[in-house]
Amino acid sequence: MSTKQHLFFYAKEHGWKDQQAQAASLTAETKTPWDQQYIEGVTDPTIKRSLCEWYPRLEKVFIQRAVAPLTRSRLFASNSWAKPSRGKGRGTGPTGHYFDQGSDSTVGSKHYWSAVEESRAPRVSANPYFGSLASEGICACGSSNVGRHMCFDCGRERQPPARQESQLESRQGDDHNTKVNPANQANQASQGRRFCIHCGAPQVAAAKFCSECGERCINPGAISQPEGAFQRRGGYFEKAPEPQHGAGVSKPEDEVDSFQDYKAQLRKEVLNAPATERGVGAYIRSLEGELWGRVVCDQGRSWQLASGRLARKENEGKVWVFENPNAIRAALHEAPKVVPEVTRQSSILDDLAEKRRQEEEALQAKREAARRRRREGDAGHQSQSGERRVDPDDNKLYTWEELRARYRGMFSDREVLDYWNKDCKVVPAVPAVPAGRPKQGHHGHEGRKDPDDGKVYSFDELCRKYRGAFSLEEIEEYWLEECREMR
């Protein structure tokens, strides 16, 4: 068998009936460089080449002719010489092109173009779930199923509705010799139309996103009738539905639309009704005395309060109790409860601290009494003596009686005495020493009685006793004010 006969039978095996006739039918205008090589390799009997030399050239020629725009040839496919390199059923040639092994749906098989024409799906307006244009099928329930065999909304096999079939027939036209069914047109006209509230584009029944602008359509609701004026409902503009209770008959006021409306109506009735002792309408209070609220609904295992809080029935008596409505009214008029003071057990340290505090208070009271006596004695002494002091207000000398008479009515005697002792500069007068009594100061050997222990001390002995605990000024003040002079 010659090379030319090998090429003829090889091409015939893969779906080419007569390669010579097809090559001869090419005109000068439609020929390409690849076509010229193909003609030379098939028709020229003088060229003697082996079949193995023509395999790469035939692959290259057939692939180029398959993608040429002016020729509608089939892609060369083989399952014998091209080994799969990317998974099962995939092969590649020297040019790097991938193609499937031969089957009824393989590109290049004898049934490929007929299968393409039969499986060509209509171009729908949009994918209502993802908002992108795609060739897809719409189930009879109205949901889009892209590349799915079963519907993911109703669970049935994907079947296009009647209106989609009518659109398919009208688009295909005379190519398939189909007729438009009037019943399908009536079914399509009876369906409600919806429009996007953002761009106004028409939408399918189960669309959740607009196919034109991609915005979300909220609360689809029920499909409206085509008759009547358009109204906005949820995320769509719909036509107003016909009244179900007859023309001109409105919906009763006491009829509720949903379970939420029923709960709201029940809550309103419970809050307006008088309080009960138990169950719905009663008040719940915690064991600590905190008022939780009023029961408006029985949830089975728990009570729902007006505030939305839930009180579990199993915690009654452990965490909360029902409040008596009479006790609530009586609590408004009863006297406030006196919380008893909790006495803490005292320790030895507390007793010592309390004893020390009492001693300090007694000592402070003694010192204050001594200061008071000293002021009174100084006032009596100043009234009897003729001591004069300088008033810093006018820098004049005044006796005690003169200073008190000057500020009488403006200040009290105690305030005048403090002003006399603290602010007025002392100008002491030298008293006459009585006969028979030597002049002595408080630093001499004079003895005075210490009120702390009742013993008589001289000033030097008193300094040695309180040295380290008090300063010299404090000891001297204590000596003059609190120690009693012994005569």
Automatic annotation (TrEMBL):
Residues 162-178, 359-368, 443-453 have a biased composition (Basic and acidic residues). It comes from the Eukaryota. Residues 81-106, 162-187, 359-393, 432-453 are annotated as: Disordered. This is Zinc-ribbon domain-containing protein.
